[in-house]
Design a protein that fits this description.
alpha/beta
């Protein structure tokens, strides 16, 4: 199983519906989707700044923001099924459908910091460890530029500060795809070969795991 994190920024991208179609058509029983909070999470940030709500409340609201994105995705294709916990995710995957993680209840019960240092990237990695998944695929708006390993991506703010800790219980691979690269995901699911650019845990080079066919629009 692959955990596929669809960045919240895709909510303003013309490619989001293509991603949903790819995952519904090719990912049944093989992927679990973790949506980012996107503009819904941005609204939580603004609310916290304006009204001074505490980090625990903001953390809860940011998780609900992820669930708002999740609800949109599930409304588009019946193959995508809301699930709130590990057992439900596994059951839906066994049924040959695509579980979409509604994260709030499980994350609030876990020992995860109530902080903006923890984003949906880290939560996808944490979930992957719990599921024993083979891979985490981070789908984000930008392409990776020059090769960089996980420590560099964290320093540059492209991954959150808790990401390395979130990977502590995960033994699989992590890759990065830009929002215009849904065709690479489709090809990877058909072939079983993880697409995108692999994120290495230590400093060094990144490996392109699939040759892309021309530039993808941003």
């Amino acid at each position: 199983m692959w955990v596929v994190k669809l960045g919240g920024s895709l909510l303003t991208s013309p490619w989001l519906r293509l991603w949903v179609d790819v995952l519904a058509d090719h990912g049944a029983g093989r992927v679990v989707v973790v949506p980012g909070g996107g503009p819904f999470a941005d609204a939580v940030r603004m609310t916290q700044q304006r009204w001074g709500i505490d980090d625990a409340a903001a953390h809860h609201l940011a998780l609900v923001a992820m669930e708002q994105h999740a609800r949109i995705l599930c409304s588009w294709r019946r193959e995508l099924v809301p699930q709130h916990n590990i057992e439900g995710i596994a059951a839906v995957a066994r049924q040959g459908r695509v579980p979409v993680w509604f994260a709030a209840s499980e994350v609030l019960d876990a020992n995860i910091p109530a902080s903006w240092d923890v984003t949906s990237d880290s939560l996808a990695a944490w979930l992957a460890g719990r599921l024993g998944a083979e891979a985490v695929v981070l789908v984000k708006t930008p392409r990776l530029g020059a090769p960089a390993a996980m420590p560099e991506l964290i320093r540059e703010g492209k991954l959150d500060q808790w990401f390395a800790k979130a990977l502590a219980g995960f033994n699989g691979r992590v890759s990065w795809l830009a929002h215009g690269e849904s065709s690479a995901m489709a090809a990877g699911l058909r072939s079983g070969s993880l697409p995108g650019v692999e994120i290495r845990p230590q400093s060094g080079s990144l490996k392109k795991m699939r040759t892309r066919e021309g530039p993808a629009p941003e």
